[in-house]
Structure formats: structure tokens, C-alpha cells
Design goal:
The complex is a heterodimer of chains A (115) and B (111). Chain A has no helices and eleven strands. Chain A is mainly beta. Classes of the chains: A mainly beta (115), B mainly beta (111).
């Protein structure tokens, strides 16, 4: 049973470009979570999505960041007009349902570097 | 902002020795406490999800306890092995689906 798949593993963008990070949850999982790890910091919650719905986006920066989880296909975290401060590791996790007693299963992350 | 604190930040353990470390979290509005093991260049691996005061969970040589009234959890590693070297993260469920992570305890087991 394949785990959470994130791609690309590494992404390099120049300032002002757009970055698209993809996450395919584990089979049977319909809840997806995105976390960000800035350099020298811990994992920080960004957004929680269920198929076609954003449940909690309280950790998303107000501008330039958006996330979606369409009915078909992977979840996408989109960063427009990237800046140097967006350089970080972005992790996706999934669970079969959103109950607090369920573990979230993580992917290997996407390392985003902004030149 | 709810603080999840882990201590120590790092520790070195001799192979065969046992060790433990702490996660402290807000004791009000408790839902669940998660423990993860994170090896370098890999993804965080779920170890335990703990929900009840007094809970004890065990997985091989690793076990965890939970005290929700005073807001702390201990993770124990018995008879440490080099493959136990990793960063151990705890995370507090803030609300439905949202985890607040601690900074982690980095464990290095030397032969």
C-alpha cells in the first residue's frame, strides 16, 4: 500500500515565479494536511482539506498561498510570486478521516528553494 | 498560540542504555497527543496517538505515558539501539485535524 506521495522532492524557483507542490494521499484517505518547516524551525500547520473542501486554513499566509484538493487528482499547494522567505520544506499528511485520535501519515516532503 | 514544549532538545545515549524525555502541552481542551519518530531524510513516522489520562502505549522497546491533568507525556526507549537514533516529535491536537508540533528531542545512540 503506497504511502503519501509528494512531488517534486526538490523544487527550485526564482523570485516572482509560481511554485506548485503536489500531494497524493494514501489510498482510502480523504483528509489532507499541509505543514511547513522553515529553516531551523519545527513543523507548522498550514491547512487542512477534505475532498473539495477547505476545513481549516488558519495557518496559511494571507497572501500568495492557496491550496486545493479536487474530487479527482492530488492536493495542490500553490505559492504565487515566491519570495526568499518561502524557502522551506513542505510536508503533506493524510488520514482516512479527521478524528483527533487518528494518526496523520506523512510524505517525504518537497524542499523548495528560492533563488 | 498554544505551546508544546519538548525537553531535552537533544540527548546522547550509549547503546543498551534506557532513556526518556518529555513533552508538555496545555492541559485545557485536550483532544489527543501524538508522538512521531523522524529520521533524517525520511518522513515523520507515527508512533502513538494518546487520548485518555493515564494512557500507556507500547511499540517494541518504545513506550509512552500520558498525564492530561498536568499536561505532560513521557516517551521511553528501553535498551537503546543505534537504529533508535532519530528526532522524536510530539504534537498536540489543537482542533479538528490541526496539530501543533513541538521542536523535537534529537536522540543519538552511540555504539
Amino acid at each position: 500500500n503506497a504511502g503519501v506521495m509528494q512531488n517534486p522532492r526538490h523544487l527550485v524557483r526564482r523570485r516572482g515565479q509560481e511554485a506548485r507542490l503536489r500531494c497524493s494521499p494514501m489510498k482510502g484517505h480523504s483528509h489532507v494536511y499541509w505543514y511547513r518547516q522553515l529553516p531551523e524551525e519545527g513543523l507548522k500547520f498550514m491547512v487542512y482539506l477534505q475532498k473539495e473542501n477547505i476545513i481549516d486554513e488558519s495557518g496559511m499566509p494571507k497572501e500568495r498561498f492557496s491550496a486545493e484538493f479536487p474530487k479527482e487528482g492530488p492536493s495542490i499547494l500553490r505559492i504565487q510570486q515566491v519570495v526568499r522567505g518561502d524557502s522551506a520544506a513542505y510536508f503533506c499528511a493524510s488520514s482516512p478521516w479527521g478524528a483527533s485520535n487518528q494518526p496523520q501519515h506523512f510524505g517525504d516532503g518537497t524542499r523548495l528553494s528560492i533563488l | 498560540i498554544l505551546n508544546v514544549e519538548q525537553s531535552p532538545q537533544s540527548l546522547h545515549v550509549q547503546e543498551g542504555d534506557s532513556t526518556n524525555f518529555t513533552c508538555s502541552f496545555p492541559s485545557s481542551n485536550f483532544y489527543a497527543l501524538h508522538w512521531y519518530r523522524w529520521e533524517t531524510a525520511k518522513s515523520p513516522e507515527a508512533l502513538f496517538v494518546m487520548t485518555l489520562n493515564g494512557d500507556e502505549k507500547k511499540k517494541g522497546r518504545i513506550s509512552a505515558t500520558l498525564n492530561t491533568k498536568e499536561g505532560y507525556s513521557y516517551l521511553y526507549i528501553k535498551g537503546s539501539q543505534p537504529e533508535d537514533s532519530a528526532t522524536y516529535l510530539c504534537a498536540f491536537t489543537v482542533s479538528w485535524g490541526k496539530l501543533q508540533f513541538g521542536a523535537g528531542t534529537q536522540v543519538v545512540v552511540t555504539p
